[in-house]
Protein 1
Amino acid sequence: MLLQNQLAPGELAPEQEVNRLPPRFESFNIHDFFPLIMCVNLARRRDRWQQMQARFKASQITGVMRFSAIDGARLSVPDCWPSTSGAYGCLQSHVAVVELARDLGVSSVLIFEDDVEFAEDFQQKLQTVLAQLPDNWQMFFLGAIELDDPVPVAMGVSRLTKAYSTYAYAIHHSLFDTFIQLNKNSQQLLDINSFLLQQRFNCYCASPYLAWVESGYSDAQEKIENHWYLRESLVLFGQSANELLASSCVFIHLEADAGKASLDNLYFLLEYYFQYFQGHLSVCVLEQGESSVVNVNRLPENTRHWLLSPGNAREHDFARAAGKFGKAFDYLILSSNGLYLQPMDFRGNLQMCRRHQLCDGFSRRIQLTAKDSQILKQQADGRGLNLSAYQAGEKKNTAFDRLPGTEPSCYFFIETGLLLKLAEEVLAQDKPVPGTLETYLQGLPCFDAPNFALALSG
């Protein structure tokens, strides 16, 4: 594989130099900018090609050529390959498309994968963005999962410094050879190689995004994916995201008389929060009981612990904790012990809480089996955990029902000031009724997160 210093350097032109589309905006044609448009599609997934044809038509994207994807399942994948056979086939497919573009002598190629969705009024938004795209562009993404703060360069356009996802992007002919040389015999994922290109060349992205990946089974990743945060154009990583995490605290409610299984779940979640959010996020364990059963030596350094009297409603404990700790944070997350959100979903929910003051955390709860719970605890990011059977109904799962007092699981993201106001009403009651806080929250404008939460078994 080529190292970064083996790439031909890309000379960075001044950012203010932008393209000017022809004045005939009314007759804009995407082929004026991208003469070759390809959609990568497996032969065994003709259903997706039919679906994409309908989407292209709805978004007025004409003249898209289908490229028969290289099927990783039929390849001899190198032993050192770090991911799935589908991801290997994806890499080879993208290389082949760029080789074809080079052989045809086109000025650029726009590549779509067969699970992409488009923003409303796509054509109008695209032409507005292209009018601002710097004319030194060498890669242009219609959307991406950004791992660093984007750098705005013009209205609707930002420079990428570290981002992945190649579901909708274009390559300029000046980068064809470098792209092919870097990826053709690579033992790294296409996304990893994309990082190298972004560090050396002029790579831009639409902001907000013009396209995203549909929710469903990914042939490349060989699992169900739900990148709902792309639809919202959320940047989940970088300095801004870290600052948001640092201004947030998770309240985990631990019921009285917690047994070994509950404590094991708690320690797993505490370690997960600490490791996967790089210590930026604070956590407070609200334990009910006459005496503590929590081993404080197992609490990460970002964790507080507060022992509360047994018998109170959970809402009462959350309200008291908000008064005691809440003023130190801008955002609070109210959670039951043993309830897990995947890292990207957690980050996305927190971003949406900043927009809307209140986010419900998840739309569906999946009760994991004991075996799957152990898999999750061994790989806290969820790798190796197959949720397809739950979502297909083959394994028993519990749907989330938010009737007050009937659902033992809780996961709300809420602005601190809003929770403090609600806490005053809860604490004003002599004996808060279970479900009171959820009732208040249900009556407020709330972002309904389209992801699911995982409930750990013992």
Protein 2
Amino acid sequence: MATLTDLIAGELSQARVSEQTRQTWQTFERLLLQVGGALVRVAQSPRSLGYEPWIVERGGGRLGARGLAHVLVRAGKRRANDNQWRGRVVKALRNLAKPLRRSSALRARINTLLQAWEQSSVIETIFDQAKRDEREFVRLLEAARAGDASVFGRLAKLAVALDPFLTLTRGQNRRAASEAHTLFLHIGRSWGGGSYTWDPITADFIDPQTLVTRLEFNNDRFDPRPAYRRAKNSTFKDL
């Protein structure tokens, strides 16, 4: 059975899109792997109200457009979820590196980290940045939760080694629409977009890409400026 990656790649190869857009597909593949979308059949995905028609109008194949829309929404939601978890994970890891004082506090740190492991990709991201394997860390957390106190020292050492990568950025609690829009603006550059337009008469944003994200997330008050600043100051590799 063809995967989502196979189907979209084939669709893009036949669509009337620029060479720059075809090259951008490498980034889409990376996003597919991040959100697990490669296991979903595009044809069975619900129709996108915003991103799919926008891409089709600019020459993208309908199947590919639906797949990319699915990726953008899923990636936005995943990133928003990770944003919510990151502060808690960073705090728990920093505390884990400190001398133990109360067993109840230690259990709380361990439970937080295991919940983050199960419900987000924050721990994987931090370990990936540190170029370390998170599997040992997770096994030690599970052992500690089961009552094995002998693993505490090793857990603390791993937490200390991660300290340079325990960073928090401004606007950490970005919502799914804003995260998806940041990626969408990068895609829009392939079709000559990637900005926003403010209309002083209506006192609102009127550019097509902002309106499309509002449609996709059913949010008529979505503000594109934070996403635009992130997209402007970064590359796809940074996202």
